[in-house]
Amino acid sequence: MAPQLLSTRQACLPTPLTRKLAQLVSLTVEEIAVLRDLQSATRLVGRNREIISEGRKYDGLFVLIEGVSIRYRVLHDGRRQILNITLPGDFIGFPGCFFENALYSIAALTDCVVSSMPFAQLLGFFETYPRLAAAIFWSFSCETAMYAEHLIDVGRRSALERVAHFLLELATRLQVIGLADECSYQMPLTQELIGDALGLSVPHVNRTLRQLREENLVAIEGQRVVIKNVEALSRLADFERSYLGRFQLNDLLAGT
Amino acid sequence: MAPQLLSTRQACLPTPLTRKLAQLVSLTVEEIAVLRDLQSATRLVGRNREIISEGRKYDGLFVLIEGVSIRYRVLHDGRRQILNITLPGDFIGFPGCFFENALYSIAALTDCVVSSMPFAQLLGFFETYPRLAAAIFWSFSCETAMYAEHLIDVGRRSALERVAHFLLELATRLQVIGLADECSYQMPLTQELIGDALGLSVPHVNRTLRQLREENLVAIEGQRVVIKNVEALSRLADFERSYLGRFQLNDLLAGT
DNA sequence: CGGTACATTGAAGGGGCTCAATCCACGTGG
DNA sequence: CCACGTGGATTGAGCCCCTTCAATGTACCG
Question: Which of A87, A188, A214, B207 is 20–30 Å from A123 (CA)?
């Protein structure tokens, strides 16, 4: 699945996290070094293993360096809702880990490389590297905004709009970290996972994708998704990418 | 609507926000004073007026002192999704206000008293009052967790489970700020608003409420909701209140 | 070559929607 | 004091989107 997401990266290259944060605040050499150190102690998590288990206690966050994971909850009768898809450069553990017992589980969809970040270190950042801290804080805000968008998805959008919105959001997020080109990418999820993320059944995800294909909005060749008409698709989905970028604290921190 | 939510409060009494945060970290006299100052510059917002308008730019957050407001988005064709219900003591503006243009609108459902809190002040807190800052940060985490819970609601729960979960969450939140007793409270929303929050139509909200009444799980007399069987209702809704409390950073900050 | 994981398609049913009417409480002005 | 308007709750009928269940196809892998 999505083999190029797993391609080996040199430790000296900018990590996805650095890329993301550097778009917000122009990082100093020192800050970049701090970020690199932060991500040096990595751990491998095999495909389908849990990175965080609901109900357990954690003393830190993780940063996903490589791979794809999902945050989810399963109800008592087995229904599952995927809350978010975690891509390289994303934090793993917000907000559930701040609670006494983790609220949600996070599982690796592919083999993953993660680095951990103790809470104490995070708190220390607010004093020593306020600009980094703010950027991290932005990252959390962004994640919350995605939840809100997903809420609109499942609450008020039809299956067609939902899937369209999902494909566009994923495209944008993958582009930010350099894992997608202008209008195509490898889909890291199966149709079952897409269904669990969007509150749809597998057959209906399938039919909906077909409809998008028939209307010539997207093309799907194997795992590869090609968005053939970004304009029309965005209109259909009511997609407005601003919730994935454009932080304003940037200005405030300029003088720090 | 919910007249007692609007009852006049003396400035010297603990505000809802103080109450909420004090449950997390035992606040010092100084910190309480800071919180009080923070909320001293208040503004009145009339019923049905917008507190925050989507697309506009803001340089601060607000704290809701009194009243009820909703965060929402309306799609191009008029469908509306309510993302969250803001109760006294809640912050208004996270996460949308951190973006260059506010992502969502926030409207006062009742006459509201709000106080504003410039970003600069918020950032300053991380240096001067780290424990307060952490408590505020917790508040954001809690809000994100609520989004996640709502996502599970609309994604994977039936209408009956959804409404049950909604009633329980509201009860718990109102209890925290002293606006609900053990098992009853004034419902601040109309059925139309409940529908827009849960992704249901008005008639179906009505039918669902009736069903809950017929099954003797809740009683509704006018605006007053009485939860007659918390146990059974919680089981039905898969409700687990831990996402509304129990922050663990508390320990970390004990020595600060 | 059989097994597993996933995609695809069909048929039938139901949960929730739309549309529409009615009811009720309340406030307001003649 | 009553007629009327308004906002909200309630109820019914018909329908459609999406689900469930089930079968089939297909690629890959040990």
Answer: A87
Which residues of chain B neighbour A238 with C-beta distances below 8 Å? Answer: 75-76
CB pairs under 8 A between A and B: 155
Tokens at residue A36, please? 């690199």
pLDDT tens-place values along chain A, 256 residues long: 333 333 334 445 678 888 888 877 788 889 888 888 888 889 999 999 999 999 999 989 999 999 999 999 999 899 999 999 999 999 999 998 888 899 999 999 999 999 998 888 888 877 788 888 888 888 999 999 999 999 999 999 999 999 999 999 999 999 989 999 999 999 999 999 999 999 999 999 999 999 999 999 999 998 999 999 999 999 999 999 889 877 766 666 655 4
* B interface test, pick of A100, A138, A151, A154 with most B CB neighbours within 10 Å: A151
Compute how many other C-beta atoms are within 10 angstroms of the C-beta atom of residue B61.
Answer: 22
Residue nearest to nucleotide D22 (CA to C1'): A203
Please name the nucleotide lying closest to B203, CA to C1'.
Answer: D10
Q: Which residues of B touch A86 (CB under 8 A)?
A: none
* Contact across the interface for B57 and A198, Cβ inside 8 Å: no
Can you give the pTM of this predicted structure? 0.91
Whether the CB of B204 is less than 7 Å away from nucleic strand C comes out as yes
- Does strand C come within 7 Å of the CB of B190? no
Query: Which nucleotides of strand C lie under 7 Å from a protein CB?
Result: 5-11, 15-20
C-alpha span between A179 and A229 (Å, rounded): 20
Closest CA to A140 of A198, A100, A84: A84
Tell me the HSE value of B53 on the side-chain side, using a 13 A CA sphere. 5
| Nucleotide showing the shortest C1' distance to residue A192 CA | C6
A200-218 residues labelled b (16+ CB within 10 A) or e (exposed):
beeeebeebbeebeeeebb
